[in-house]
Amino acid sequence: MSAGQLKAAITPARLLDETGRLVRGASKPDAEALAEGYRKLVFARRLNEQCGALVRQGRLAVYPSSRGQEACQVACASVLSDGDWLFPTYRDTAAIAARGVDPVEVLTLLRGDWHCGYDPNEHKVAPQATPLATQLLHAVGVGHAARLKGEDTVVMALCGDGATSEGDFHEACNFAAVFKAPVVFFVQNNKYAISVPLARQSVAPSLAAKAIGYGMPGFRVDGNDLPALEKVLGEAVARARAGEGPTLVEADTYRIESHTNADDASRYRADDEVADWLPRDPLLRVKAYLTAVGALDDEREREITAAAEEMAAAVRAGVGAETSADPEEIFAHLYSTPTPQLAEQRAALRAELDLEEA
Amino acid sequence: MSAEKMTMAQAINAALRDAIAQDDSVVVFGEDVAQLGGVFRVTDGLHRDFGESRVFDTPLAESGIVGMAVGMAMNGMRPVVEMQFDAFAYPAFEQIVSHVAKLGNRTRGKVRLPIVIRIPYAGGIGGVEHHCDSSEAYYAHTPGLTVVAPATNADAYGLLRAAIAGSDPVVFLEPKKHYFAREEVDVSVAVPPIGRAVVRRPGKDATLIAYGPSVPVALAAAEQAATEGRDLGVVDLRSIVPFDDETVCAEVRKTGRAVVVAEAPGFASVASEIAARVGERCFHHLEAPVRRVTGFDVPYPPPKLEHHFLPGVDRILDAVDTLQWEDAA
Ligand SMILES: Cc1ncc(C[n+]2csc(CCOP(=O)(O)OP(=O)(O)O)c2C)c(N)n1
Ligand SMILES: [Mg+2]
């Protein structure tokens, strides 16, 4: 391990500063691609706001917002090819939408209709994982299987800072490194695990620095800097695709809202701290940069806003529609052929429902 | 001290507070238990009042929490740890089954583990997947664990005090749908010993056997049956292990009919064990086979479907109706 490798794992990489200026020595991002990224950021933000409204209206059971983390949400999806896989958590609704899944399908879980509303195989997006860090091992398995089958699939595995304390995080990193699995571990370090601050999770120099112990490259990146994220994650994906094994990428970001709507962050963190992060908003700096280089004018901004409003309206309509939840479905999918006991229980519930309807 | 209205969360908080205050070896730790006071506010104010050495947040790792509790108990402390939700205790399963439950036996009693593992459990709160499991069978099936499930706020206080004061490991299952319901609690009454069931309602015609979140459902069913001219008794187990055969069987022998009520899926469940025990012990007194009213054998359903899963008054009364009353007259 070189001093350079250690530095890359500790000092966050950056392309755009908070005011949207290119940092010294950085190569210019492609303005048209970045404008497309900006559109996705606006969509992700709008989705977070819409879901916040829906949960306040009682239309969603719960919503863990990724407000402030939209650059991470967009970047982890945009660096993947169609055949690649994404392994998201409960907080990554916007990332799954950025991958192209209809947000209404994604929200099936949080709406309380079913545990997963999209077809993982169709979109190559695993169900949103709630048991922390458990999905990381599945990601390694998908990646290793792809290699055994001779496919060049890459797997993007997401988790939070808190989840890095779980044993499964360690096991996944180690397995991936040992098997040279084509996995990018992407940790959105938003500084909190519900109320517990990062300092209680780890006293390592950084979370990315843990990669060194597993024998894989680790990179820390400004998690509110879309082009920097796309560069670092894109390079990690390219390494994985080329057979060079896994990478651990840590995004230095911040959870602007409470853990979920059910949480009250004022019990454990000062408003000042949140206020400090607001100017580092991932949308502001991209907008400033694009405006300065002439790639974003009022008309384009209006067009993006209008499209985002259209998406939000579709989400409102979809989530507001009559529930699709079917009581008998609770028996339907457990076994490829239902056991006799399940068939019996299903019939019993059917009889109850018929009585109610009669 | 006289009775006070408090929620189950407050009753458990009071038990922790009193235990910490009275015994220097009691320590409380887990995820979000200190600064936040727990996601259900059960540990609210304890960190503020007793400080970091007695009440502390850990890194996010359940196996770590329980494993460290084992070591601390080996070194003279009484750890009371919190698993944030039922299904999030599973990473600690290895520590619980292989060590918490077995270390006393392994060492011929030389090492005792006075650990309490508090688990907010069961459903009825509209929680998404992994937040509503009834996991008692895993623990009850593991020899060496005491498994407690209070149904009232007063029992939550008393049984937790007993659990902390005892010398064996206890899995303490807190029905989370009760957390915010207010009831009278008198913290000055004697702590009930763990292992004694209680007759919540005497009955002449049939006996409902329940624990934890199913007790109020059973009581509601008995209430309803009374208006229809049937006198149902309700036994609240309080602890699943040890199991109070004596109290349960005494009631069933009086009525000759029994229905077990529990939220967990019924196959290979605690309810099955109860039905088997009652069948073996009360066979000659029974007018009908013991019935079980449980959750279906499916994973806990999403919020919009949970009411179809949970055993309710109607299902209990339907089961009671099948207890061969036609022979009774
Ligand atoms: C195994 C497990 N333990 C506990 C929980 C409860 N829980 C849900 S989210 C969370 C905090 C996770 O923090 P982090 O990994 O930083 O992700 P973030 O929520 O900040 O995105 C906790 C403790 C869980 N889901 N799974
Ligand atoms: Mg976090």
From TrEMBL, chain A:
<dbReference type="InterPro" id="IPR050771">
    <property type="entry name" value="Alpha-ketoacid_DH_E1_comp"/>
</dbReference>
<keyword id="KW-0786">Thiamine pyrophosphate</keyword>
<dbReference type="Pfam" id="PF00676">
    <property type="entry name" value="E1_dh"/>
</dbReference>
<dbReference type="InterPro" id="IPR001017">
    <property type="entry name" value="DH_E1"/>
</dbReference>
<keyword id="KW-0670">Pyruvate</keyword>
<feature type="domain" description="Dehydrogenase E1 component">
    <location>
        <begin position="40"/>
        <end position="311"/>
    </location>
</feature>
<dbReference type="InterPro" id="IPR017596">
    <property type="entry name" value="PdhA/BkdA"/>
</dbReference>
<keyword id="KW-0560">Oxidoreductase</keyword>
<dbReference type="InterPro" id="IPR029061">
    <property type="entry name" value="THDP-binding"/>
</dbReference>
<protein>
    <submittedName>
        <fullName>Pyruvate dehydrogenase E1 component, alpha subunit</fullName>
    </submittedName>
</protein>
Automatic annotation (TrEMBL), chain B:
<feature type="domain" description="Transketolase-like pyrimidine-binding">
    <location>
        <begin position="6"/>
        <end position="181"/>
    </location>
</feature>
<keyword id="KW-0560">Oxidoreductase</keyword>
<dbReference type="InterPro" id="IPR009014">
    <property type="entry name" value="Transketo_C/PFOR_II"/>
</dbReference>
<protein>
    <recommendedName>
        <fullName>3-methyl-2-oxobutanoate dehydrogenase (2-methylpropanoyl-transferring)</fullName>
        <ecNumber>1.2.4.4</ecNumber>
    </recommendedName>
</protein>
<dbReference type="InterPro" id="IPR029061">
    <property type="entry name" value="THDP-binding"/>
</dbReference>
<dbReference type="InterPro" id="IPR033248">
    <property type="entry name" value="Transketolase_C"/>
</dbReference>
<keyword id="KW-0670">Pyruvate</keyword>
<dbReference type="InterPro" id="IPR005475">
    <property type="entry name" value="Transketolase-like_Pyr-bd"/>
</dbReference>
<dbReference type="Pfam" id="PF02779">
    <property type="entry name" value="Transket_pyr"/>
</dbReference>
<dbReference type="Pfam" id="PF02780">
    <property type="entry name" value="Transketolase_C"/>
</dbReference>
